[in-house]
Amino acid sequence: MADIQVQPAVQAAAGKKRKALKWNRIYRNWQLYLLISPVIAYYILFQYVPMYGIQIAFKDFIATKGIWGSPWVGFDHFERFFHSYFFWRLMKNTLGIGLYSLAVGFPIPIILALLMNEVRAEKFKKFVQTVTYAPHFLSTVVVVGMMMIFLSPRYGMVNHAIQLFGGQSINFMTEPAWFKSLYVLSDVWQTMGWSSIIYLAALAGIDNQLHEAARVDGATRLQRIWHINIPGIMPTIVILLILNIGSIMGVGFEKVLLMQNNLNLESSDIIATYVYRSGIQNAEYSFSAAIGLFNSVINFVLLVVVNQISRRISETSLW
What share of the chain in percent tops pLDDT 90? Predict the structure, then answer.
């Protein structure tokens, strides 16, 4: 009986000791916690606090009554969206652009980083890095404006080249069949250099002795890339792949809206632009919130599933 009575006291003492150690650790590193506090405050204020408004997706929001005063309607807005004429078109276009971007845009920065890592001429390497990084600093509006100028059916250099070889002028910006390719390829051009930086950093962390040993064994440059560099950056690739798949439904709203017009709406209408039209232009706040919540849930489910698959197949995962 004495042992049974002593045990809770020992556990309580151990708990107090762990708590004291935790606070001591925080006190010793208070500068680091102070440094990260603005980031934490940003996410709390602008990412978590607004989640309070998610409940309007399940209400018939009336501005004069406020969020709490508006009546509950359950899943009515979701059912309306699922049975709407636009549902399958929006899903097809959003998934199509997301998968296209992943298939084309994800491997190119990896290939670019592997190629730049093999360049030994420093001046040429810096020149290539500057040229590939520069488009990242252009705004989306500028990039779309450049596309409209270059692809103009009357004045664009692309159509001039097509006509020079005997082809017919193409109005790329109004053709639904060209929209996804224009969106993805221009996005790759704009982001591939900047996205390759993280892979270059990972490549810099690979032990050079592995390459020296491989050279002694007679391995070619291609064999060293395949058997040393790629396995060395594979954890980074897997983590970024998980994050990219987890945001596959989060297609860039601004660029799609700028490229969108009535003639290419069949291919350019995605969930984000439909939410904009419903929520901002038509003032259907509850309906648009329900669509946005549905989109976020799909992204969250994809992130969890892919992370679980990665954890079972390999030792790399987000959690």
Answer: 64
